[in-house]
Amino acid sequence: MKHLLYILLLITVPYLVNSQIVEGVITYDITVVEISNEKELTAGQKPTLEYTFRDNLSKIVSDHPTQGFTVYSNEEENIILLESMGQKNAYIANSIEYDQFFGKDMNADIRVDKTKERVILGYPCSYYSVNFEDGSVMNIYYTTEIIPHTKSFPFNIKESRGFPLYIEITKNNIITTYTASEINEIPEEGGEFFRFSIPEDYIIGDISLMMKMKNAFDNQN
Questions:
Q1: Which residues neighbour 95 within 8 Å (Cβ) at sequence distance 6 or greater?
Q2: Residue 1 domain-assigned?
Q3: Within a domain: residue 215?
Q4: Phi, then psi, of 110 in degrees rounded to 5
Q5: Low-confidence ranges of the chain (pLDDT < 70)
């Protein structure tokens, strides 16, 4: 599903710097690179991921051309909308099922390197890496100046004390990178961003079956 979010009130980076943000819209640019061929698989496509958060609500939208998704979340319920190869499926998950789907229960070795720092969109960021049992690796730069009240970002790790503005995931022969490129304010009519509804053309599926399929796929790759 290709969602185009129109940002009505744009907040400039200099205005936001040195202040803590508790709600907003963060846009990430996505790049996918095949390591062996040094080939960027997203060249010319410019896919993005947008994370909108306010109070105990959040919405995540990816417009990746091969598999788009939208996730609505509050403290107790999550709605996951997936579109892949023309198929549109919807899943309703409680918090435990949601955490399992995004792999938050995976055992991981987390290493913090305080010598690595960088500035992203004007925000000072610290670094840590995560090594998972399946061999995949995540490199993350996070800031402590963005503090959502909602549950953590799906790629975030609870041991970190901040919000990620750069995520690099290496798995098998693929490197996927999420780099924050914009931070905007939620439009005044932002309640529409968090509308918990399933479009009529989506088929409601079994979240437990989807997790089994996901686990089977992960074990093959």
A1: 75, 76, 77, 78, 151
A2: no
A3: no
A4: -100, 125
A5: 1-22, 43, 65-67, 75, 84-85, 99-108, 148-161, 188-196, 209-221
Q: Which domain holds residue 61?
A: 13-206
Report residue 159 as tokens: 């041991």
- Specify the CATH number for the domain of residue 118: 2.50.20.10
- How many structural domains are present in the chain? 1
b/e string for 113-135 if b means 16 or more Cβ within 10 A?
A: eeeeeeebbebebbbbbbeeeee
Prediction pTM value = 0.75
> What span, in angstroms and rounded, lies between the C-alpha atoms of 103 and 107?
9
